[in-house]
Amino acid sequence: MEPNTDIAGLYSSAPEQLPFAPSLEIRAFLLERERGNLLVYTNNMLESDAPAIAELGGVSRQYLNHWHEAMLAPTWAAAPVFVHESDRQSVAETSHVRATFRKRHTLDDDFEVIPTPGHTPGATAFLWDSGKHRLLFTGDTLLLSDGEWVAAVLDSSDRGAYVESLELIRDLNFDVLVPWAASGGQPYHAFTTQSETRDRIRAILERVRRGEGS
């Protein structure tokens, strides 16, 4: 795991090319916390990161944004996996699920679990207060393509639910966006302000409402 030089406590796995979108890279992220490190997302590079994860104190829980992650890569064998109940069956085909959730809730006062259905029924965002930054992990609900914020509306996505989730994200208080996927060779996170967030998501909402995919 590589430490983020701008955000203390955030570590990223080595990147992996997304098979069906080779211009994008996916990463898993370790959140270093006194009450137990968390792992958000997964990819096939985690096994090579095992020594670094152990040195950082291991992982107490792993959270998946949606079932596509488990479809493409194994989850971390040493940590219990948590996923939204709506995506449990699909995740369970490849990974052992310790527990599921349905509602928005907070873990240890610093990590909030926020269901954002649309991309898949169980897509979920995670908001972590690191002490200096508020990081929002959006999976594929929002991703970074050449530095731009875009949605990933699939033929199987629920467009109406996606719009509602984007409206929810628009009003969250966060200053760093950390998606699962970002363009290769470019930053995997984006600093933002509440004003910039609202402007960017307003533009995405306009495209999604017009029937576009991003």
Radius of gyration: 16 Å
In whole angstroms, the N-to-C terminal distance is 30 Å
Could you say which overall geometry the principal axes of the C-alpha atoms support? globular
Sequence of strands across the biggest β-sheet = 1-2-5-6-7-8-9
Summarize the amount of helix as a percent range: 10-25%
**Fraction in beta strands:** 25-35%
* Order of SSEs: EEEEEEHEHEHEEEEEEEHEEEH
Q: Please tally the helical runs, counting DSSP H or I stretches of 4 or more residues.
A: 5
- Describe the main β-sheet briefly: 7 strands, mixed
Give the beta-strand count.
18
Q: Any low-confidence stretches, pLDDT <50, length ≥5?
A: none
Average the pLDDT over all residues and give the rounded result. 92
Structural class, from secondary structure content? alpha+beta
Q: How would you describe this protein?
A:
This protein is an alpha+beta fold and 214 residues long. Helix content is 21%, strand content 30%. The protein is built from 5 helices and 18 strands. The chain has helices at 50-55, 67-72, 88-92, 159-170, 194-209; strands at 2-3, 10-12, 16-18, 21-26, 29-31, 38-40, 61-63, 81-84, 99-101, 105-107, 111-115, 124-129, 134-139, 143-145, 148-150, 176-179, 181-183, 190-191. The strands form 4 sheets. A 7-stranded mixed beta sheet has the order 1-2-5-6-7-8-9, with no helix packed on it. The protein has a 6-stranded mixed beta sheet with strand order 10-11-12-13-16-18, with no helix packed on it. Strand 10 (105-107) and strand 11 form a beta hairpin. Helix 4 (159-170) runs antiparallel to helix 5. It is globular and about 45 Å long. The two termini are 30 Å apart. The mean pLDDT is 92.
